[in-house]
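DOMAIN: structural biology
WANTED: fold as tokens
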Amino acid sequence: MSWKVGAPTAAGPEAEAVPVPKVAHITADPTLARAARDFLESWLIRKNYDAAFAYVAPQAYPCYDLERGPQAPASVSPEDAGRKLRASLETSGKALATAKTLDSILVAAEPVHPLTRVMDHQYARVFSLSSPPNALADAAECAARNAGATIPDPLPLEYGNGYAMTVRFMTQGGDAPVLRLLWRKQGTDWRITSYGVELP
């Protein structure tokens, strides 16, 4: 999922400089940070794909068809999308070389939306956590993206319903893909309700 809203416009020679808003920082819920780390370690380090997939909520299954490659088959039902998403986790996990630590294969990618609050946590070098405005998080959900939902303008500055994780995969050269996950608390558990891959 992308946290960008609108597109930059070219500035003419007489355009006035727009001040860059100061990024707000807040402290991350430590249970969210631990869940995010455990998801990544289960998937990429321990290669325990069932444990990794357990973090994925059914709301994220429709993202499979939004994010699948042109050669990947479309799903025929939400359950089938979930199975294909689980298989994709395993395929991608096996494709990456075995690593002992997350920081040897991942690096944090900062959120791009200026109204997103960056969350400070102990794993911030490996992955970013942030608190986007609720309306932005809602628009990033798979069902909303399928429906072509738009983001309200102006964006209401209400926070706390969804949290973004942003991480970049290290490569030998060139730009690397960025994985964006939306986390929400469901009962006592943190679950991934939407995801997106940003290719260079």
User: Anything to note?
Assistant: Residues 78-95 form the longest helix (18 residues).
